[in-house]
Specification:
By secondary structure, this protein is an alpha/beta fold. The protein has 11 helices and 12 strands. Strand 11, helix 9 and strand 12 form a beta-alpha-beta unit. Bound molecules: NADPH dihydro-nicotinamide-adenine-dinucleotide phosphate.
């Protein structure tokens, strides 16, 4: 078999850990492939760029996950349902699309037992796929967002939604920061009085941001809550993508230790 080439498509792509994660895994599992990054400026050129570069598969990141959905010939049922694709594999000239962010997230929070009610802080793209899979799995998801506009589509899907002005605090088992607040600044994802009302009674707090302790996680720790950042979500979406890339030649547990090395380098 010819060496296979994979890539990350996005804008920007320079910060991403995906090339390291996948290249370490190809090397560690002795799979003849390599993974690069490609700055894709025009998302409508995704399909032609994929074939021009003779790729076998790609991960797609911001802002092209909806273009990725449109570029695929065959969609996995979950990707079809949410309209968002972050992993594409070419098979016999056709593009197959998957979403691995949401199952990766689901696996990352599985360690928190006896969780039923979940409060999402934020209602952006990441919240879209993860709220859907959590609901499919029987969790009750409520969304609290800074602005009303993004909540409209969740309302239509009958999620309970609030803005900061309309929120009435109650108990949630899990409180999750799904915003980018704290990523490049020191801001909290919601007003402190709201967080002081929901964090103390939560069983645990999770942040999708990785690589730093966000103000939200610091606040959760000040209340002695179990916390978790976004590293496992990133790792698990990568493992699930790798399973698709290699046509399930390896199990999740075989891939995990080699891909995890990307987080300790
Ligand atoms: P989007 O741009 O789609 O949405 C951003 C959300 O954050 C919106 O709800 C926005 O609210 C809210 N927001 C932004 N800044 C603030 C603020 N200062 N205060 C309150 N709310 C704020 O982003 P994504 O959904 O794509 O990404 C969200 C986060 O998830 C990012 O930090 C990203 O790094 C992380 N992520 C982590 C992954 C992982 O593997 N661990 C994978 C993918 C994403 P509004 O509507 O009011 O603007």
């Amino acid at each position: 078999m010819k060496k296979q080439l994979f890539a990350l498509f996005g804008n920007p792509v320079s910060h991403s850990k995906s090339p390291l994660m996948h290249n370490l895994s190809f090397k560690g599992l002795d799979y003849d492939a390599c993974y690069t990054r490609y700055l894709l400026e025009d998302g409508s050129k995704l399909k032609e760029t994929f074939f021009a570069l003779k790729l076998k598969g790609v991960n797609v990141t911001v802002p092209h996950k909806e273009h990725a959905f449109n570029a695929c010939d065959v969609l996995d049922p979950f990707a079809q349902k949410i309209g968002v694709v972050n992993t594409i594999v070419e098979r016999e000239g056709k593009l197959y699309g998957y979403n691995t962010d949401a199952p990766g997230f689901l696996k990352a929070i599985a360690e928190f037992k006896e969780v039923k009610t979940v409060l999402f802080l934020g209602a952006g793209g990441t919240a879209q796929s993860t709220s859907s899979i959590l609901r499919d799995e029987g969790y009750e998801v409520t969304l609290l967002n800074r602005s009303a506009g993004r909540l409209e589509k969740y309302k239509k899907e009958r999620f309970e939604t609030f803005t900061f002005d309309t929120f009435v605090p109650k108990h949630y088992d899990l409180v999750i920061n799904m915003t980018s607040a704290g990523l490049e600044d020191e801001s909290l994802p919601a007003p402190k009085e709201i967080l002081d009302a929901v964090v103390p009674t939560a069983k645990a707090c999770v942040d999708v941001i990785y690589g730093k302790e966000t103000p939200f996680l610091k606040l959760a720790k000040s209340y002695d809550k179990p916390t978790k950042d976004g590293s496992d979500m990133l790792l698990y979406q990568g493992i699930i993508a790798f399973e698709y890339f290699t046509n399930h030649a390896y199990t999740f547990d075989e891939i995990k230790p080699v891909m995890k090395k990307a987080f300790i380098l």
